[in-house]
Design brief:
heterotrimer; A mainly alpha; B alpha/beta; C alpha/beta; B: alpha/beta; four-stranded antiparallel beta sheet; 12 helices; C: eight-stranded mixed beta sheet; 10 helices; globular
Chain lengths: 279, 324, 320
């Protein structure tokens, strides 16, 4: 029997799986604050490039540092990057997008052109510009990625807000005497939230990948700090000897990105009152 | 008989299981005849039209028999069905704006069936397209052919869609609410156009509408559908003058009559149409019907004949009065 | 009966500038209203009939002060709406509410019915939660729904029920004027009937006067004592509804009446027009009019008396 429902994960599977992966990510970060199997920065040259064993669950890298500890510690950076970068994007992007949608006219055009301008720079180029001006390091990398998120969120907010404002219930709210702020809070934000949530989880995932790229270029985490991106960069040097060193951070990044995307899909469905009624 | 439909049923898959939206309907259409299908939302009228073209959505199951020009369509391979569509059977939809591709010119779209089914080259097809646009009485057909859909008005787009439909001289045109989205004066002209084309080329027309008056003005016979079931069928004049089914009567009486006293309350049908997933036995209209008796809820009503071709599905068909 | 009409609209003009082109493209303007005037008395519901391009929806929005006209005055109970400061205008909104055409789009899908129906109360100032709930319940019951429906979401209701929710929302501030823009077009015939009956009852019991805008003559005829017919931004005929439709004076009204499908006779149709573009001067309907002659192309006709009961038609050669 053909069922159109076959291609969607049944029930809230997206939500649970995504939440589980993201919870694992957060747990790794939380745990790493108080304990890691070894200090992630402890160098132990005699035991470099050791394969996985009881002593070192994932083995050691080319400087003898415990890979498992680095993965745990690196998760902190990933979360930090994601939260702050997306936070910056949402905070400024939503405000700009709403101002554009409500103001119309020149202001709307101006904001959108400005967004296009920032958008036109390849993300990485922007990040490189900012970090080379203000110095490398995780924080600056985060800000750079955050800045890049703003026009994306602003454009999405403006487009979806315009969609809501063109619906008759927004007109009905105006007819009832409500002002623009009340309409924005009561009608626009709740209705654009699903799209924003999904976009935010995508941007979160992109932020993690972007940080990895920046660290790869040496512009992100600086030694002795470690991040998954930096681990990938370092692994490149010993790729022939120990390809597994690229695998661990790679899989960690992939699982985090997957978890975030699933969580985004699941949240969007969970918040839809039409779908809620079915359960 | 150009089209013979027997026991046509369409089931849709829903999270609550299979839902029957067209319940074993049977009707026929002769060459050049016009048949109206009247019903409200949820009556199954659109799904019937789609089933004839095998255009039902994913997750729909069609059973029964549809014989067109003697050929069985149910179960036909998609490849063969595609050859029929646009060529022998054509369809006109409700929303010309969404039924026409906004990115292609009108002329290109009208020419498409000609290239596909008649093998015409691009230039010949475009020329023929302009002729067709003229036949549907579009002012400035060459300009219209070069334009994109958004440059035309609603009525003009609908005419273009009709031109696209008649290009290959189909034997049957299915019109699904072709004028519902149009202004009333435009509607009148489009319906007159369809009538004119029908008599010129002896095409049969299946007109689906929720508006009884539209059907009355442009069809020879009609069927009235409710919850997937044909409640009454017959010649338009007979059915409207002497309806033999309480639902038909209720539809007639619910219309505000121009000229009636202003304070006259409209007779309404209490309750609401059966919800999607309710299983039912007996007559779907039972309970809402003023003539309901216990048997209506337990036994599906039989087909009762009145005269040669007038049929009503009702246990109490003979008692349906007409108080107009 | 008060002296001032409930709603008085004078010489409304509104032109839309089609955006995008530079300051030199003067031709990109669309006149939506080209001088519309009428007044509505308390207790006498008023109908406006027109097709697309007639300006009827623009009229509805301006009458409700959701849009400013380029010229003209709108007076509610004698007070000119566009001259009021914002706070007083908000207070006036208690007296006028609107029902929209689309029962699926006019209710916020994310809100519960209670919040939706209570929204206009915000203009009344602070109300307590209990007061709000009580008024919502009363409003829902007045339209034939249950008080418990307040907790549901719009998608749990059918089209007809949603329209009732919209009506409940419009009534909650006990307005004197309700503007209904195609309130039943999207509904099935049987549900239309229920909704129209409801509106009649409300007119009688709740002291509401309707400004009913529709393309459907029969709908308007059912509720409205007086009707205005609009064509391309102007009123072309106005008068008592029954007389208007049984013996039209303006050719466009006649065309509408003839084109409306009826059960007793087929629609009568004129041959299609040559080019229905509005001329620069002269009557906008002239290109389509079977009775047009030279004077029709020179000057725009204005509304002039054309029969009893306050009947007026904007035509140089009104039909007998």
């Amino acid at each position: 029997m053909t069922s159109p429902a076959r291609f969607r994960l049944r029930g809230g599977a997206s939500l649970w799986l995504g939440a589980a992966l993201v919870a694992a990510l957060i747990a790794a970060a939380a745990v790493s604050l108080v304990w890691t199997p070894y200090p992630p920065t402890a160098i132990d040259i005699p035991h470099k490039l050791a394969p996985p064993s009881a002593a070192h669950w994932f083995g050691t890298d080319n400087l003898g540092r415990d890979v498992a500890s680095q993965i745990l510690a690196g998760s902190r950076i990933s979360i930090l990057v994601g939260v702050i970068a997306v936070g910056i994007g949402l905070a400024f992007g939503i405000v700009l997008g709403l101002v554009a949608a409500f103001s119309k006219g020149l202001i709307e055009d101006g904001i959108m052109k400005l967004s296009d301008f920032v958008f036109a720079f390849p993300a990485l180029l922007l990040a490189i510009m900012l970090t080379s001006t203000f110095g490398p390091g995780v924080v600056n990398a985060i800000v750079a990625i955050g800045v890049y998120n703003v026009p994306i969120i602003a454009k999405l907010t403006r487009a979806t807000a315009n969609g809501v404002l063109s619906r008759e219930y927004a007109l009905a709210a105006r007819a009832a005497g409500r002002g623009p702020i009340a309409i924005a809070v009561d009608h626009v934000l709740p209705n654009i939230a699903p799209a924003l949530i999904v976009q935010a989880t995508i941007q979160f995932a992109i932020a993690i990948l972007a940080e990895a790229a920046l660290s790869y270029l040496g512009l992100g985490a600086q030694p002795p700090e470690t991040s998954w991106g930096k681990m990938l960069a370092d692994a490149q040097n010993v790729l022939y000897n120990a390809p597994r060193l690229a695998l661990y951070p790679g899989v960690a990044i992939a699982l985090s990105v997957l978890g975030l995307n699933l969580l985004g899909d699941g949240l969007r469905d969970a918040l839809d009152p039409k779908l809620k009624a079915r359960s | 008989m150009l089209l013979e439909v027997a026991d046509l049923a369409v089931d849709l898959v829903t999270p609550d299981g299979w839902q029957r939206v067209v319940d074993r309907t049977s009707f026929s259409l002769a060459e050049g005849e016009s048949l109206g299908v009247v019903g409200e939302s949820g009556s199954g009228k659109t799904m019937t039209a789609l089933a004839l073209m095998a255009l039902t959505p994913e997750g729909a199951r069609v059973s029964g028999s549809i014989r067109f020009e003697g050929r069985e369509l149910v179960g036909l391979e998609e490849e063969e069905m595609r050859q029929l569509r646009g060529d022998r059977i054509a369809m006109i939809f409700q929303e010309p704006m969404t039924a026409l591709n906004p990115l292609h010119s009108v002329g290109a779209q009208v020419a498409e069936p000609l290239m596909l089914h008649r093998g015409l080259g691009k230039r010949d097809a475009r020329e023929r397209a302009v002729q067709l646009l003229e036949r549907v009485r579009l002012a400035e057909p060459e300009r219209a052919a070069r334009s994109h859909p958004f440059a035309l008005s609603g009525g003009e787009r609908q005419r273009a869609m009709i031109a696209m439909a008649i290009g290959c001289s189909p034997r049957l045109i299915i019109a699904d609410e072709p004028t519902t989205a149009l202004d009333v004066t435009v509607q009148a002209r489009i319906l007159a156009l369809i009538d004119g084309l029908r008599s010129e080329s002896k095409m049969a027309v299946l007109l689906v509408s929720h508006d009884l008056a539209v059907i009355a003005g442009h069809c020879e016979r009609l069927i009235v559908m409710y919850a997937g079931v044909i409640m009454e069928s017959g010649p338009v004049e007979t059915v409207l003058r002497e309806p033999r089914n309480p639902y038909t009567l209720a539809l007639l009486e619910a219309r505000p009559r121009p000229g009636a006293p202003r304070d006259e309350r409209l007779k309404t049908i209490p309750g609401a149409p059966p919800a999607q997933h309710e299983h039912r036995t007996g007559c779907p209209f039972a309970g809402r019907c003023a003539l309901t008796v216990p048997i209506c809820r337990t036994t599906p009503p039989p087909e009762t004949q009145f005269g040669a071709s007038h049929m009503s599905r009702c246990h109490r068909a003979a008692e349906v009065g007409f108080t107009r | 009966m008060s002296e001032a009409p409930l709603l008085e609209v004078s010489s409304l003009v509104k032109t839309y500038r089609l955006s995008g082109v530079g300051p030199f493209a003067r031709r990109n303007v669309r006149p939506a209203l080209a001088g519309v005037s009428f007044s509505i008395e308390h207790g006498r519901s008023f109908g406006v009939v027109g097709e697309s391009g007639s300006g009827k929806s623009t009229l509805a929005r301006i009458a409700l002060a959701l849009d400013r006209p380029d010229a003209g005055v709108v007076r509610l109970d004698g007070r000119s709406l566009f001259d009021l400061p914002a706070r007083e205008l908000r207070a006036m909104r208690v007296q006028m509410q609107m029902i929209f055409q689309d029962p699926y789009g006019s209710l916020d899908p994310r809100q519960r019915v209670e919040r939706i129906v209570a929204e206009p109360l915000a203009a009344l100032g602070r109300t307590t939660g209990a007061e709000r709930r009580a008024r919502v319940a009363a409003s829902l019951e007045a339209v034939g729904l249950k008080a418990s429906d307040a907790l549901k979401h719009p998608h749990e209701f059918s089209g007809g029920q949603r329209q009732r929710i919209a009506i409940a929302r419009a009534l909650i501030t006990r307005p004197r004027l309700v503007i209904a823009d195609e309130p039943v077009s999207a509904l099935d015939v049987s549900v239309q009937a229920q909704t129209l009956n409801l509106m009649s009852d409300l007119e009688r019991d709740a002291g509401v006067t309707f400004l009913l805008i529709s393309h459907d003559l029969a709908v308007v005829a059912h509720i409205c004592r007086t009707t205005a017919v609009m064509y391309r931004g102007r009123i072309v005929e106005i008068g008592p509804t029954q007389a208007l439709f049984s013996s039209p004076r303006h050719p466009y009204t006649l065309e509408l009446v003839d084109a409306t499908p009826r059960l007793d006779r087929p629609a009568r149709v004129e041959p299609p027009p040559a080019l229905p573009d509005a001329p620069a001067d002269g009557c906008a309907y002239a290109p389509r009019c079977p009775y047009a002659s030279a004077p029709c192309l020179d000057r725009v006709p204005t509304l002039a008396p054309a029969g009893e009961g306050g009947r007026r038609a904007a035509c140089f050669f009104p039909l007998a």
